[in-house]
Amino acid sequence: NTLPDEKKSLIDLRVIDYIPTLSFQVLDGQKRRGTILVELAPNKIAVPQRPHFLLSASNLNHKEWYKRFLDNCNKMYAEAKPWEWRQ
User: Is pLDDT of 86 > 90?
Assistant: First the structure.
């Protein structure tokens, strides 16, 4: 999801109530230059050994998977709850 201009320099942390089997970092997801770094999270595999792959919006070979992961990311974001700082 796109943040309004006044919030673009802020970090929007959200939480979910389950452990996902993957994580991703989306950079400029809706733009042609967008990229998604995907990390799979198989059971009992240390972080450095986990499989990673990079998808590019501009690469036609990535088009279908880029869209799927971007849609999945947006759905996870929508169902997540904003994280509230408590002291």
Answer: no
